[in-house]
């Protein structure tokens, strides 16, 4: 029985990885796009290992051996009064994550994570911030806006209408933020980017929105006391992106 659990777990996990990485874009909820080949390779290897294990044990599993044995999954008595050792029943719980990936992929990180992690001020960088377009609404990433709102002593945000896209993170006393999570490798190393929104009611938590407005200066620029904030003119619901951790701006026309 224990051997059966191991073999089936390998097969289910391998199929689950191929499902999210090869047939869908669900893997983007957990890792960067560049890791897709590694996930596909891992899924193939797990399926091959499971197939080899199944072939070695025969079908059905634990069929009697020619020498009268019962195979590796059938233990002999070990002195505790039981002649059969099926392994701990809790081993079946190992199927939960494998089947979850296959049939019910968990969502990407959202407001729960963002509300519990403090947004670290982005680096000031080594060069001056370039000027923004003189006319029209400027689409900006939350990282770029946050950097300028905290470190840009030249105030290049002043007088410009900007548009930020992210998910809603509720705060205390009616405060809310438009947020993004950035990853270096996978969701485990996610870093929070949050911009406080003034002048608009908060949409539901985790809703993806596009917020158009103007910079709301907060704190002393060039210090950690400054924080990114926006006076909202409009807040529009938008579909969640396929890659929720990619904050790259796509210019609108």
From TrEMBL:
InterPro entries, A to Z: DUF1980, DUF1980_C
Keywords: Membrane, Transmembrane, Transmembrane helix
Residue intervals passing through the bilayer: 39-55, 92-112
Keyword Nucleotide-binding part of the UniProt annotation: no
Annotated spans, Disordered: 60-82
Domain DUF1980: 157-245
Basic and acidic residues composition bias: residue spans: 64-82
Classification via Pfam families: DUF1980_C
Family annotation (NCBIfam families): TIGR03943 family putative permease subunit (TIGR03943)
Protein name listed in UniProt: TIGR03943 family putative permease subunit
């Amino acid at each position: 029985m224990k051997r059966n659990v191991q073999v089936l777990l390998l097969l289910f996990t391998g199929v689950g990885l191929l499902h999210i990485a090869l047939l869908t874009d669900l893997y983007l909820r957990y890792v960067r796009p560049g890791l897709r080949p590694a996930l596909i390779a891992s899924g193939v290897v797990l399926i091959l290992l499971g197939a080899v294990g199944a072939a070695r044990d025969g079908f059905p599993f634990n069929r009697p051996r020619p020498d009268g044995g019962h195979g590796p999954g059938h233990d002999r008595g070990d002195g505790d009064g039981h002649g059969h050792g099926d392994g701990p029943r809790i081993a079946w719980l190992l199927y939960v994550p494998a089947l979850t990936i296959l049939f019910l992929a968990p969502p990407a990180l959202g407001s729960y994570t963002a509300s519990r992690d403090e947004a670290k001020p982005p680096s000031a960088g080594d060069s001056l911030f370039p000027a923004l377009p003189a006319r029209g609404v400027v689409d900006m990433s939350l990282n770029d806006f946050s950097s300028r709102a905290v470190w840009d002593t030249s105030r290049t945000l002043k007088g410009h209408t900007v548009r930020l896209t992210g998910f809603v993170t509720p705060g205390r006393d009616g405060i809310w933020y438009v947020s993004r999570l950035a990853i270096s490798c996978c969701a485990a190393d996610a870093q929070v980017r949050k911009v406080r929104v003034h002048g608009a009611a908060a949409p539901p938590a985790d809703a993806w929105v596009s917020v158009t407005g103007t910079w709301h200066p907060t704190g002393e620029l060039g210090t950690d006391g400054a924080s990114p904030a926006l006076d909202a003119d409009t807040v529009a619901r938008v579909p969640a992106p396929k890659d929720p951790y990619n904050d790259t701006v796509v210019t609108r026309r």
